[in-house]
TrEMBL record, chains A, B:
Residues 30-109 form the Cyclic nucleotide-binding domain. It comes from the Bacteria. This is cAMP-binding domain of CRP or a regulatory subunit of cAMP-dependent protein kinases. CDD domains: CAP_ED (cd00038).
Length: 193, 193
DNA sequence: GAAAAACATTGAACAAGTTCAACAAACGCA
DNA sequence: TGCGTTTGTTGAACTTGTTCAATGTTTTTC
């Protein structure tokens, strides 16, 4: 049983050692090289993944070819296009490895098995989805009410470890601004110090 | 058993008539006059509500006093501050009735009872939270990639019934723009026709 | 270790959206 | 019916952020 996954689960629900092991056995490990894709637009998301090592970006490409990053997923995060995975329909998202990564993946069929046999797993994913939803609501509010400058500083404060692992272009795509403008913000902030 | 609630549930999971009735019995009806609050900032969200009639707005007020609308909840929608309700902590949202409204409310205690006794209810709320999360992701992407003009037109197309029930100020707060700018957009669109 | 590709910076012109102020229209209510 | 409050409109000046193009720097890749 993987420790990172065990702790991730234990943070939300309590499961017996036996159930944890059975749930764990429904996953299989998989490696993703940097720049390879966990999921591409048009594909049906066949697996949900738990990141053991590495870093992914989950993003959308709009009609003009501009990328919007929904979130970054380093170690201890889950990756999937929920809509595509749940409803078995083509995804409109990309999930790309930004570093060589290790992931525990579970298929749709095995996840349904888990839901069927372990009510606590159903609860686990209800609670996790609620938390990510609350976080997204907060981000929505921030995007509507704060300036890019402030959002950048908040991002640095919230994800200090990611700062060194991401290019400024990626951060700009997360903040919803052009990378040139982010460069100007950085310049301005540097001068202020 | 209320028909609207029955259909809302049946859209996501299947429950026996008996279970539906037992779940339904955990709710109590409540009336909200126009301009009264289902929830105010600082309060702990004690109930989750299912709107039978009327219309609510769920919004946040930022440091400058500017309101950001997270969503509007007409008939057949659920209202709550998930974060406050789940974790019993003070809310930072307001939920206000924009029309005289009727709501079925369920307390935190009764909802826990439902989760405990009916696994299908746990599944129901997992699925509903997933759907609202997917919808919010889409809105996030739209806000990052589309112009206010386009977002306004999308809003009208998506919620044609709400258009007549909301002031332009409310719609502007949902779109994340000033009401003056919305007025200019409307003027421009009217001229184009 | 060199060439190519991706990334970061800067400036100038531009577009999108805000703010403030003034006024008109509609609504709620006594 | 009328009076006060909220809502909608418009214009001018302003701020925030974009686009494009040029230049230098760092990373990849073979």
């Amino acid at each position: 049983m993987n420790q990172l996954l065990r702790n991730n689960i234990a943070r939300h629900v309590s499961l017996s050692e036996d159930q944890l092991q059975q749930f764990h056995d429904l996953f299989e490990p998989r490696l993703f090289k940097k720049k390879s894709y966990f999921l591409s637009e048009g594909q049906i998301c066949a697996h949900e993944g738990f990141v053991l090592k590495g870093l992914f970006r989950v993003y959308h490409v709009d009609a003009n070819g501009v990328e919007q990053v929904l979130y970054f997923a380093p170690e201890d995060w889950w990756i999937a296009d929920i809509d595509s995975f749940s409803n078995q329909k083509p995804s409109n998202l990309f999930i790309e490895a930004l570093e060589d990564s290790e992931v525990l993946v579970i298929s749709r069929k095995n996840k349904d098995l888990a839901y069927e046999h372990f009510p606590a797993i159903e609860k686990l994913f209800r609670i996790m989805t609620q938390k990510t939803h609350v976080a997204l609501q907060r981000r929505m509010i921030d995007n509507l009410s704060k300036t890019a400058d402030k959002r950048y500083q908040d991002f640095l404060a919230k994800y200090p470890d990611l700062y060194n692992r991401l290019s400024n272009r990626q951060i700009a795509a997360y903040l919803g601004i052009s990378h040139e403008f982010l460069s100007k913000i950085r310049n301005k902030l540097a001068k202020e110090k």
